[in-house]
Amino acid sequence: MRYLITSALPYINGINHLGNLVGSMLPADVYARFLRQEGEKVLFICGTDEHGTPAELAALEEGLDVADYCQRQYERQAEVYQRFGLSFDYFGRTSSQENHELTQNFYQCLDENGFIKEEEISQMYSLEDERFLPDRYVIGTCPNCGYQSARGDQCENCTSVLNPTDLIQPRSAISGSTNLEVRQSKHLFLELNLLSSKVESWVEEHPDWSSLTRSIAKKWLNEGLQKRCITRDLNWGIPVPRTGFEGKVFYVWFDAPIGYLAMTKAWSDRAEERNWLNWWQQSEDVRYVQFMAKDNLPFHTIMFPAMILGTGKPWKLADQIKGFNWLNYYGGKFSTSSKRGVFLDQALDILPSDCWRYTLLAISPESSDSSFTWEQLQTKINKDLADKLGNLINRILKFAASRFDSRIPMGGVPGEAEQRLEAQCKELMDTICQCLHSLEFRKATNALCALWTIGNQYIDEQAPWKLFKENPEQAAMVIRTSINLIRIYALASYPFIPSTARQIFDALGLSESERTSSFNSAVDFSILKPDRPFDVPAPLFQKLDDEQVARFKSHFGGE
């Protein structure tokens, strides 16, 4: 089995926040790293989503040409994700030539198969801006939940799909003007209603999807699929290859998911031995897993599969769609547009990436919405990372360096305590492995912390610093066991906190092959032999004090 992994494409305007990270890219990265560690063949694809209204608005606000703005933002985002340790095999762009060609090809296939309809529609026109306003250029009150900043395509608050004319008290996102009127404009529609039975059959083939993913897909299907407009009156985007549609582009939600294919093609084109169609068409042995927050689920469970099915081509459909709820910030939403919460570049300015990765995974919003607080971050760093993991490694290796000349000691015979430790490690490693295969990241992170805990219990019970005075040989055995335990910790931690794991690998002097043991074979207390040298790493984590937490809360608005 080969694994194709995609995470929802981060939008180009601005730097994403912690909620975006934990809702798609971070768990996808953990899953990809875990599978590679298990010896599986993995292709992890992501990239920036660059078309649509927000990109134009953001470029306009900064006084830049939209293409220049997107180029700059792409470079900024790629750097931030690299610093967070996201192990994409390829990080591309929806503005690429590959995506232009594939999107137009998708449209032509859908048109030839009778799933495209041309209609004139009523569309908002701003008299002050002297232009038609695509859906995201119109802001108003959601008719379903009363949210006052709903966009003309979807309400961010209740996820209802909308049209601009549905909004109460609509206004222009460009000028804020309410001097709007409805005019006629010619557009193309994807006739989702004609594809409904195909999509429903496909959804029913996946009873193993989470309740969140299935409930959103079923909600759309039960309400009845309607035709969906796939063109916009914009300049920035993929041109529509149809007479009479000059000056119009495809809707961002039409071209964005095709970007997964286009980015795979771009990855393939960079090496002769790669063939992207082996992942997307000749794909009987490919398991395709998608990661995204719940607001993206309607498009990935309904619209994108309908597009694929409508082409009549053997494109690969998702096998598993992992949806996440919201990560909130002190009772309110993270918001890129409102600049509320902690954004990824800011996060890396104040703490190392692994502190964020571990904390976010530990509070992952899988079964329900969860909330980020600075106090919670402090607890995870201080009690879990610094005390349970970092302190154990530091005190064992420091003691071993001073008493055994920085070499793994020989002597002593493992007993009942070591047998019990090995059994506990195997059980917890198996739990982590099962949870990751099942895409249960919060449970996997809790099991990892439990693994660190049993090591501390073993060390406290055996107390090698006291034992050394009474029975040096037994103390040597405990230290040798503990250093092998540290190796197990590094292997178990690698998908979650890869930078820290690499520091531990380096301190133990592990070879490349020794760093890639699968979870099933990792629990072996005889790998690191006596007389093998090691180094004592610098402290792996610095604790957060109350003064720092208070300062962060004040700076980032976490009151």
Characterise this structure.
The protein has helices at 18-37, 53-62, 66-83, 97-112, 192-204, 211-223, 252-268, 277-280, 297-311, 344-350, 353-362, 374-404, 416-437, 441-462, 464-470, 472-493, 498-508, 519-522, 546-556; strands at residues 2-7, 41-48, 90-93, 116-126, 131-132, 138-141, 150-151, 168-172, 180-190, 228-229, 231-232, 249-250, 286-293, 320-324, 327-329, 332-333, 370-372. The protein is elongated and about 90 Å long. The strands form 5 sheets. The chain has a 5-stranded parallel sheet, with helices on both faces. A 4-stranded antiparallel sheet has the order 5-4-9-10. Strand 1, helix 1 (18-37) and strand 2 form a beta-alpha-beta unit. It is built from 19 helices and 17 strands. Helix 11 packs across helix 12 (374-404), helix 12 (374-404) runs antiparallel to helix 16 and helix 16 (472-493) runs antiparallel to helix 17 (498-508). By secondary structure, the protein is of the alpha/beta class.
Topology:
Blueprint: E1 2-7, H1 18-37, E2 41-48, H2 53-62, H3 66-83, E3 90-93, H4 97-112, E4 116-126, E5 131-132, E6 138-141, E7 150-151, E8 168-172, E9 180-190, H5 192-204, H6 211-223, E10 228-229, E11 231-232, E12 249-250, H7 252-268, H8 277-280, E13 286-293, H9 297-311, E14 320-324, E15 327-329, E16 332-333, H10 344-350, H11 353-362, E17 370-372, H12 374-404, H13 416-437, H14 441-462, H15 464-470, H16 472-493, H17 498-508, H18 519-522, H19 546-556
Parallel strand pairs: 1-2, 1-13, 2-3, 13-14, 15-17
Antiparallel strand pairs: 4-5, 4-9, 6-7, 6-8, 9-10, 11-12, 15-16
